[in-house]
Amino acid sequence: MPPANSYGPPPGVMAWVMERLGLWSPASPDTTTPSTTPSTTTPTTSTGTGTGSATGTGSATTTPSTTTAPTTSSSGAASATPSTNSGPQTNAPTTTATVPTIEETIAAAVAQHDTLAILRLATDDTARGKIIDAVNTAASPATCGFFLGSISSTAGSWVAAMTDARFERFMGNAANIADAIQYNAVWTLYNDPGTRSAAIARAVWAKLFTAQILSPGATSVTWPGGTSTSTDGSTSWEWRTLYMPVAPADLTMQRLMVGIRPLPRGHINMANIAFVNQTQQQYRQTVPSVGAWTNHGATGTIGTSYYLDNCQTVVIVSDAAGGTTNDFAMGTSGSGVGGVTGGPALTWFLNHARHEVGHAVGARSLAGVPETGNAFATTYGGWAASSESAFKAAMWTATDTQKLNIAGVETDVAATAARDWLTGAISGGAEPSGNAITALAGTFDQKLAAIRLAWASQELTKYFGAVYGRVGLAGFKDGGYQFPGYTPGGAKVHLWASRMNPAGFTTYDKTAFDACVGRIGWYALSSPVEMFAEMYTQKYSSGALPPAVNGKDPSTFFPLLESSTDASVVPTDEASGRAPSHTPATPVAPAATPPSHTLPS
């Protein structure tokens, strides 16, 4: 019988497996150990008449043995009979595998959301471009999110491959992005907001923010203007200014993205943005019934940017075509952040974009922050409303009488008359009636020159001269916060502040003056809300914040604002998922024409 370890050739698949395991080789001879036991098989005998040779001519045949021992012919000559394991070997057919292309490999990795494969395949910009193309081909918000999350730590190396065409298509496929890691990856891919296309700027804005850039025709941006009533009291109206948005031009949109790039996302989401060139005064009847808003007079234009807290909107001044009107360097006048020598270099546009968002943040109570930004700045500066009498007492100490030469005429004038004349000119915008100096001949400038000569050492004289020399009397109220060349001498700074609420004589601490004027500029010293907005602009323009004053340290307060949950989450409309919007009322004809009315500035 055959040896126990004698096998025939393995079948096709088994041959392949055994060959790989080293158990069998098609090129090797049979390695089965031959039996040492002599064959006991009896040779068969022919029945013919052979010639006695090994190859007889008779009809003798041999019966093959089932063992490996040789058999013998009828003539006694040996004739080898094959064993059952000595036949020819046949291997299983070999199948040549088709190697996938790099595009197919990438497509499979993208389809399977295989992060490790994506990063392994991203060997150069060409490969990265093919990966981005595969993501775009998938056209799936989930795939876009997977891609952003996968490359987040290496996003900088993908910038060159993310061309404008690829980026625009990618943002079109992506969902609104809430995840912070994906948000940061988008900004890294955006790389330089000023060089990316305007189409990409708009696409990125739409996917990253809930705040809206308001479109032409929106009626939500208003400022209240008081009320008026007819002579007989039977009819009343309310007034407002309507700010009329225009679509931002391409360059304006790109510049906006540069402006808001450093800001926390939740801060940007705290206000809608309206690019505005024109305003319209409007009225509507409220008594005896409510009517529709109706235009009153011609449209006007705006000259600067605002934050309107009543409708939570940043208004950015624009031309009629949506272009920026103020994208020029602030210079070194020290008027605000970007204008202080040695500070961050900003254009007026960048200053306004960040500054007005700062107002939106400063007005809001944020989770985990003990006070609003405006309240922080109020304490920081020691801001307080004052009065005309307190202003006089602090700014004027003289009680003598001086001989003034005005227009060639010498006249004895009491110090108190000079004090009252200067103070009255500030609060009234003109020479005060009933004052002895007002009654004298001569121009305003001649009288002022004489007073400045006689009482040059008085704080009021120095303050008045510094402001008047810069903006004149007509601009004194609005510009009373800025007085270059005059350094207040006491512990408190006394001024007229038109941006206080209410406007009027005001004080703040001299320590705040020293901390801010040379670091974030004069405009920070116009009111506490402007002080906070300028700190905010400085913070997000890579500038140094002012030092701690009155126990308030900006360097510890701003991290609180950033760590608040409100820095990434804001209320939205249930229907649109966007920032609050407003729908105009159904028009109703007014019952009567209102009296002439001028809105306050």
What's the topology here?
Layout: H1 12-21, E1 71-72, E2 78-79, H2 102-111, H3 115-121, H4 125-138, H5 141-151, H6 164-173, H7 180-190, H8 198-208, E3 222-229, E4 236-246, H9 250-260, H10 265-268, E5 272-287, E6 294-295, E7 300-301, E8 306-308, E9 313-317, H11 348-362, H12 373-381, E10 384-385, H13 388-395, E11 401-406, E12 409-414, H14 415-428, H15 444-454, H16 459-471, H17 476-479, E13 492-497, E14 504-509, H18 510-516, H19 528-539, H20 554-563
Parallel strand pairs: 5-9
Antiparallel strand pairs: 1-2, 3-4, 4-5, 5-6, 5-7, 8-9, 10-14, 11-12, 13-14
Task: Tell me, briefly, the overall form.
Answer: elongated
| β-strand number | 14
Helix fraction bin: 25-40%
Note poorly predicted spans. Answer: 1-24, 27-87, 570-591, 595-601
Q: What proportion of the residues form beta strands (DSSP E)? A: 5-15%
Distance between the termini: 118 Å
Structural class of the helices, strands and pairings?
Answer: alpha+beta
Describe the sheet with the most strands.
7 strands, mixed
C-alpha Rg (nearest Å): 46 Å
The average pLDDT value, as a whole number, equals 84
Q: Given the structure, what is the number of helices?
A: 20
